[in-house]
Amino acid sequence: MKIIHTADWHLGQTFYGYDRGREHAAFLDWLCDIVGTTEADLLLIAGDVFDSPNPSAGAQRIFYHFLTRITNENRNLQVVITAGNHDSAARLEAPNPLLGIFNTTVSGVVHYINGDIDYDRMIVPLKNGGCCLAVPYLRHNDLPESDSYSEGVAKLYTELYNRARERGYHPIIAMGHLQASGAEVTVGDSSEYAIIGGMEGVDTTFANEGIAYTALGHLHKAQRVAHRDNVRYSGAPLPMSFAERNNTQGVTLALLDENGCNVEKIAFDVPVKLKTIPAKPEPIENVITALSGLPDGIQDETSPYLEVKVLVNGVDPTLRQQIEEAVAGKKVRLVRIQATSEMQAAEEHRQQMTYDDFKRKEPSEIIQDIYKRECGQDMPVYLLEKLNEIIKEVRNENIGNQGM
Questions:
Q1: pLDDT exceeding 90 applies to what percent of the chain?
Q2: Please, which residues have CB within 8 angstroms of residue 340's CB and are 6 or more apart in sequence?
Q3: Helix (H) or strand (E) holding 82
Q4: Between 172 and 366, residue with greater pLDDT
Q5: Which of its termini does the chain have fewer beta carbons within 10 Å around, N or C?
Q6: Up-side HSE of residue 392: CA atoms within 13 Å toward CB?
Q7: For 204, which DSSP code?
């Protein structure tokens, strides 16, 4: 059985004001070719199909045109889609009766029967005798009763797995849109944020040995989880921010046979590149020299997006003008100027941290780090005292709520 796993398309996203419809269309054309070339049996789309709960008509048109094309060109292909935290779950699931004609199933909402979770609705039979545990992005009220979010997620998957096994499904595949504990989060990426407020990192031990492959979405960097090749984030097909410019975009191909699961990353050459000049902040004189080396040309839809990093010692009202003049006539689109002080530049040497590392940091420590990075100095004592008072009040309030 051949599976193509993808996620986090974010159709409809604009990049610093530029529409990315052309880039997304190029990816979907490429994906159609990959599915046909590999003769895939199953396409898994693990959430965040759209960038917004209210996607534009253009974004929806691209999506449904893709589903029509890929199922027409691959008559034996089955498609399973789950909603992510960016999607409108009800909107995504609404066309299910029609999509069934195209061998496509969408799991967007956790349904209930007589007040109990309708587990069976999340078990999608596959043509080869197996099934897919199609679990959408889960909120607290979607979970069975438990002491924590992670425990509730584990209970839900365990119940789904037990039901699938009792009915003789083989192989069993799982999907999820969540923050896996131990997975690598891209530092400095505002588009790939940790789900905070109880939606903490999930222990993926729920993906037990009986589950042949687990397709995850939410984190934009392709990676395996907990050193297990068959538990994967496919990553996003396009870089969603400059922090992701060095990620390898594409999809994951999983081959299931009697010997287990073999996984391969298929890279997608994105049609519009992201450039950062220089790689690290430098004085404006060095930056102007570096920009002069960019290729000349007319800006168009294929021109790279450009981020410029400048090391500054104070306010320079001519900074933007100097940079804009330097890139005039160059085949790039200037979208961001990041002015950084020397103290801020020192902070960029920090290493990436896992979500487990993130959870071990105190809230005050995180906020002080942000303040220092943004303001170029330590947080004043009076602000730190006020911050600690607020954190204490919030913790006392949470303790009081738990006792009710």
A1: 70
A2: 281, 309, 310, 311, 312, 348
A3: strand 78-82
A4: 172
A5: C
A6: 6
A7: G
Confidence (pLDDT) at 182: 80
SS3 264: strand
Whose structure tokens read 């292909």? 77
- Maximum CA pair distance of the chain? 70
Q: Which two tokens stand for residue 306?
A: 């450009």
Separation CA 343–CA 341 (nearest Å): 5
Pairing of strands 112-113, 104-107: unpaired
Banded pLDDT at 80 (limits 50, 70, 90): very high
How is the beta sheet containing 172-177 ordered, strand by strand? 123-125, 131-134, 172-177, 211-217, 228-233, 223-225
Cα distance between the two ends of the chain: 51
Top-confidence range, 184-198, 353-367, 370-384: 370-384
DSSP letters of 103-134?
TEEEE-S--EETTEE-GGGGEEE-TTS-EEEE
Kindly provide the b/e burial profile for residues 59-83, where b requires at least 16 CB atoms within 10 angstroms of the residue's own CB. Answer: beebbeebbeebbeebeebbbbbbb
Q: Which residue has the tokens 């190029």?
A: 26
Q: Is 322 exposed, middle or buried (0-12, 13-18, 19+ CB in 10 A)?
A: middle
Q: Does domain 2-267 have CATH number 3.20.20.140?
A: no
pLDDT of residue 11: 97
Cα angle vertex 278, ends 348, 294, to 5°?
Answer: 160
Give percent helix, percent strand, percent coil of the chain, each to the nearest 5: 35, 25, 40
Between CA 296 and CA 288 the distance in angstroms is: 15
User: How far is 253 from 48, CA to CA, in rounded Å?
Assistant: 19
Looking at the whole model, is its pTM more than 0.85? no
Q: How far is CA 396 from the centre of its chain?
A: 33
Of 46-50, 79-83, 291-295, 388-392, the least confident = 388-392
Q: How far apart are CA 265 and CA 251, in angstroms?
A: 6
Tell me how far apart the alpha carbons of residues 77 and 75 are, in angstroms, rounded to a whole number: 6
- Say how far apart CA 347 and CA 350 lie, in whole Å: 6
